[in-house]
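FAQ
Q: What does a multi-component entry look like?
A: The components come first, one per line:
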Amino acid sequence: MAFEKNFFPRQVVEAGNRWDWALLPLVLAGLVLLGYGGAQMTRPYHLGDALPLTLDPWQLPYYLLRTTLRMLLALVFSLLFSFAFATAAARWRAAEKVLVPMLDILQSIPILGFLAITVTGFIAMFPGNLFGVECAAIFAIFTSQAWNMAFSLYQSMRTVPGELQEAARVFQLSAWQRFWRLELPFAMPGLLWNMMMSMSGGWFFVVASEAIAVSGQNIKLPGVGSYIALAIEARNLQAIGWAILGMLIGIMLYDQLLFRPLVAWADKFRFEEGGQETAPTSWLLTWSRRTERIAKLGERFTHALESTFTWFRVVHDGTSIRARPHVASGTLARAWDALIAAGGLFAVWELYTFVHAEVGFGEVWHVFLLGCATMLRVVILITLAALFWVPVGVWIGLRPIWSGRLQAVAQFLAAFPANLMFPGAVVLIVHWHLNPDIWLSPLMVFGTQWYLLFNVIAGASSIPSELRFAAGNMGLTGWLKWKRFLLPAVFPSFVTGAITASGGSWNASIVSEYVTWGDTTLEAKGLGSYIAHFTATGDFHRIALGICVMCVFVMGMNHFVWRKLYRIAEERMHF
Amino acid sequence: MEKHGPPIIQINDVRKSFRAADGRERPVLEGVDFTLREGEIVALLGQSGSGKSTLLRIMAGLIGVDSGTVQYRGQPLYGPARAISMVFQSFALFPWLTVQQNVELGLEARGIARAERAERAEAAISLIGLSGFEGALPRELSGGMRQRVGIARALVTQPDVLLMDEAFSALDVLTGERLRDDILELWTQGGMPTKAMLVVSHNIEEAVLMADRILIFASDPGRIRFQLAIDLPRPRIADSAEVRSLIDEVYALMTAGAGRADRTTEEPEALRLYDRLPEADIARMEGLLELLAGPPFHGEADLPKLAEESELTDDELLPVARAIDLLGLARVQSGDLHLTLVGRRYVDGDHTVRQELFGQQVLENVPLAAHIRHSLEQDPERALPEQPFLRLLQQHLDPAEAERVLKTVIEWGRHGEVFEYDFHAGSIHLPDDQQDEAASRNSIIE
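Then the predicted structure of the entire assembly, as tokens:
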């Protein structure tokens, strides 16, 4: 490189090119903001101190910065957790047996539940500092992001194509090299998609995670979520409007500055062939690829990673005694299985004594009935949403001009925290004297219905055009056309959307069955409001019971309904 | 003929089995002895499922053996060795790495410095004729070029042995032939560091043109059935008389006593209930029979000629030939195919006659089909779920194979109107118009 430069004297001044200069302010601003926000997070703080918080819209950018930073940190931790979880579960059979069911359970625990249980511990970890509370908030966001990312990575690592694995072994890649060269790249598109989904989840619970009102605490960390909580307390609709605007900007910034570049960059990791669809682009990525200095920084990072390959490599050959495979010990595996079974039994026993001593079986029955009420709501509302959105989605999906744009809009709506609209619902319900048991229910699917919509749009737009022509040619019309052609065609993508929507609705039931606006609190009978109610009063035993029951419901629905439908869709209804 | 040097890979009395669904061991390879020597190219031929790919993977160190020994230059081989490299059927390139990064993969894994890596990769890339494409991603390349990358990646580590797992079968005929000729040219001119090559193939011509020795595998369990040394000098001309007669010989060896292990004669022998069936598509069988009956063959044809005329590859043609032999519509004899009387009636018949004949032959010659039909006739509902039959097959075959056999028998049975199948319910039932007939027959039995 240096040798070449002798021939081009104009470039001797090593100051990067004009793209470097153009991107520099952006990078510097990013660094300064990160530093400032980070410093604000570790200020001294004692329990009971009031943190300054106003409804002044000019403070919103600062709050937005704090919120964004928290979400970013949570995302980083989620990523690290996913790496650790997926590698352990995919490499070791013994770990897999424990980790995968555990994640299944963790996934069905409502996010607020984690906060209620861990907040005091985090505060005690950093006495006299705000960081403890920050940690609790970050942890709450983490719990809304990590599980599906970990699952996605684990699934991808398990499904790396056989010949690629064999190639990695023939060329003697070590576990470390294999992870970076094969497994992570292969998993990247799925992981990124799940990161984006996770981010939506994080925005949805931003109020709950920042305005910590659990177990007798009442702390409002500076951030958009607290701003909204304050606005709700003060019944300030105008401030809610500002918050919506702020959040929109936040989501857009994340999309433009983080996810769009990542998605465009990760396009090279797509494994499938056939790319008539246009590759995603990002102005920021194109821009930074044109730079010289900043691009070089990225290169240096890859080189650093590659040099670790030298340290963690296979040093012995296949003929060395060290390559001799260990024969798996049958007794050890059986002992491990026995240990797991014993652990499971112990947990059941603990649960039994806990219920017996602390809450009583009458309460369990009561909570179970509440769970049924919530399940009824979820089922009815998902059905209603499906009845409405499937035809709409199919209609849009069959029209290419609309489908591209509207799919993006629907995805954005899914990311948008629907609970910002809840105050409006409260005002209406109180004004018309409606029954909260019925009229609070729609709020559950308010945010999650979009998953149905954009999945159906995607499904309908991927119907092969030959099939469409054939249906037109045979003169299929009316109900017959729906029954024989359109509904089966979008069924797989509908199931995918419905799984996400139903899971999200269970989670959302905690915020949507128990809605406050100033000093008005509306409560619908259900498991969600049960948990929310006792979270507010800090009754640990009942929170734990509620969470357990919700876990059982969500897992039951996943196992007995959704997985079956999913399998049918996979086996019988794909092109 | 070159004098073959000292042994590189030695395989002694190797046995390998996989665990079937019911936990039983199912042998894939049994009593295999084989030595790969310096300076030779060996081709492995055999029908699918005969364990030739398994043997290749054992030699690559990817799969361990149940009993017997595998040695590389006198040392036991426990896992993938640096001196043994492999080229894959589906190329197995990492799509997110550039051509150069893909080629460097094996060197990077060994911790070789960047500069040296680049230099050696460059050399391998230009050796295989890909200069200028170093920065391209695999998805930008055509199939033939991708496989060139796969070969460069295997050669860059200076391997002693190169294993090729149907390396040309994913390519179109012309591209595959060019690539094969290029490799043979490198081999004969000593342009490769490699001392021996092992080629798994299902193309007989390819094997004859490349190899110094051809091993023909038998299946269930897989083992070496014939060895054939080829002393022709290279480059060999595909149309020369020697090559053609060798190809004929290999065809004859491959079709002789196709199927079971203990068969010594070429006389057709009844299948067992759970024997695997050749995966032959009905339209292809029909087409082949018509081709065989018409001019220029008039009911008797040489298999290689038939392959050429029908434009089918060997791995497409051989199962079809085996299937029509099994159904008694034609007979395979020392590499030739003869139309039988039934076959003649089939070709001359119209659609209804053909269907009827086909059904009759299926019932007569495929015990599994007869058993399904028999069970259906016994059943008051005239319908049965497929699972019991699948379980029966799974006791003797691996799950994927069992499913394939059931699928084939269902397809044949449907075509011959022996029984029908409901995909959604996964159940087999008698054709509607035959149900009453079966009912009356049943009542007579009772």
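Q: Is there any commentary attached?
A: Sometimes. For this entry: DSSP finds 16 helices and 16 strands in chain B.
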